[in-house]
Amino acid sequence: MDKKTEEFYARLKEELTHNTTWPAEYLYKFIVPTDTAKIAQVEAAFNQMGAVIKTTQSKNGNFTSVSVNVNMESPQHVIDKYIEVSAVEGIISL
Fold first, then answer.
1. What is the dihedral of CA 32, 33, 38, 39, to 10 degrees?
2. Are strands 63-72 and 52-57 parallel, antiparallel or unpaired?
3. Total Cβ atoms within 10 A of residue 32
4. Residue 56: which CATH number?
5. Which InterPro entries match (predicted)?
6. Predicted pLDDT at 50
7. In the prediction, which pLDDT does 2 show?
8. Domain span at residue 89?
9. For 1-29, what is each residue's pLDDT tens digit?
10. Can you tell me whether residue 86 is helix, strand or coil?
11. Of 18, 44, 72, 77, which residue is 20 to 30 A from 84 by alpha carbon distance?
12. Residue 14 burial by CB count (10 A; 0-12/13-18/19+): exposed, middle or buried?
């Protein structure tokens, strides 16, 4: 992980620690190239967590928005999931 990414996650962890009481619901939003295997990878990362997952395809069909609403234990767990799904090729975390 590069320094810029590390700094981003450090800021996110600080914000989440100070602005939220944990455990808490967290909403992840991702943009993924429309590919069933890639979408399945994102969904699999949240398997067995009781997550509510909603997908919406873009107008031209090239990309799919994936929203995941899930109960997370701590800011570090939130960041760990972001890092886990970052392995999906072409994913954009919002």
1. 60
2. antiparallel
3. 20
4. 3.30.70.260
5. UPF0250_YbeD-like, YbeD-like_sf
6. 93
7. 87
8. 3-93
9. 789 999 999 999 999 999 999 999 999 99
10. coil
11. 18
12. exposed
Specify the pLDDT at position 52. 97
Query: What CA–CA distance (Å, rounded) separates 42 from 48?
Result: 13
pTM (2 d.p.): 0.92
- 13 and 76 in contact (C-beta within 8 Å)? yes
Structural domains in the chain (count): 1
pLDDT tens-digit series, residues 34-67: 999 999 999 999 999 999 999 999 999 999 999 9
- DSSP label at residue 22: S
Q: Which of 94, 81, 79, 80 is nearest to 45 (CA)?
A: 81
